[in-house]
Write a structure and sequence with these properties.
263 residues; mainly alpha; 10 helices; 73% helix; globular; transmembrane; ABC2_TM
């Protein structure tokens, strides 16, 4: 079999295995949607100075949260579990190359991320009357989404090598995810409400730029006044996410281990 065929086959196995775990399915798909419903309902009647409904801002921003949790946490915990239960070690002794295994995991993450984004957008449209963006904005959504998924997946692979106990992987990986949502403009917007030093810290990580990019897609152009610097800065979004893709790949090469005993 070719590497592509093995990758596709492995991806199908990963998807089927994930769908059989009802707890993982519920947490992955419905928890971000539940948070959106809560935030949107509590603050939905409010509007920003530009007249944009807060529920619409939350919908756009929560897509970044959905991608981060799906790509980073799913990839990180999945690899940690496969490493601890010996799956990775057994696969190493088969004709399947590491590339095919990782692409299979990436296919799972991509499918889940697309499904997660669809769920959140549907909640925004059906519950909070969020209008869909024009066709031109969907092109921007595509490259922001792809860069976000790739960056978060690579970081998840890298961090999985540092997790010593797979049973605690989910809890460990969710800590930075939740913390970043509060300082990156997902749960608190505009970010100008935060101390300057927190704005600087948030700007280092991809979540702030992911959320800003998705807000560009779904919010009116004059809503950029609420962003840091008063612009959407799509060039900065592309640059930072691209850098994190490279950094994530470099970290993967350094930290990836086939088994928990590897050093």
């Amino acid at each position: 079999m070719s590497t592509l065929a093995m990758s596709t086959s492995r991806g199908q196995v990963e998807i089927k295995s994930f769908l059989r775990d009802r707890t993982a399915v519920i947490f992955t798909f419905f928890f971000p949607a539940l948070l959106l419903l809560l935030f949107g309902t509590i603050f939905g009647s409010e509007s920003t100075d530009g007249g944009v409904a807060v529920s619409r801002i939350f919908t756009a921003s929560m897509i970044a949260y959905g991608v981060m949790t799906t790509a980073f946490v799913t990839m990180g915990t999945g690899l940690a579990l496969d490493r601890e239960d010996g799956t990775l070690k057994r696969l190493r002794g088969t004709p399947m190359p590491a590339t095919a295994y990782l692409i299979g995991k990436a296919l799972l993450v991509l499918v889940l991320s697309i499904a997660e984004a669809i769920v959140l957008i549907l909640v925004g449209v059906l519950v909070f009357d969020m209008p869909l963006p024009p066709a031109a904005n969907w092109l921007a959504f595509s490259w922001i989404f792809v860069l976000s998924v790739v960056a978060c997946s690579l970081i998840g692979i890298a961090v999985s090598g540092l997790v010593k106990n797979a049973r605690n992987a989910g809890a460990i990986l969710n800590v930075p995810v939740v913390a970043l949502q509060f300082i990156s403009g997902v749960f608190i917007h505009p970010m100008s409400q935060l101390p300057d030093w927190l704005e600087t810290v948030a700007s280092i990580f991809p979540v702030r730029w992911m959320a800003q990019g998705f807000r560009y897609v779904f919010l009116p152009s004059d809503a950029s006044a609420q962003e840091l610097g008063g612009t959407w800065n799509l060039g900065g979004v592309a640059l930072v996410l691209g850098i994190w893709c490279v950094v994530g790949l470099a970290l993967c090469l350094v930290t990836f281990r086939w088994s928990s005993r590897d050093k």
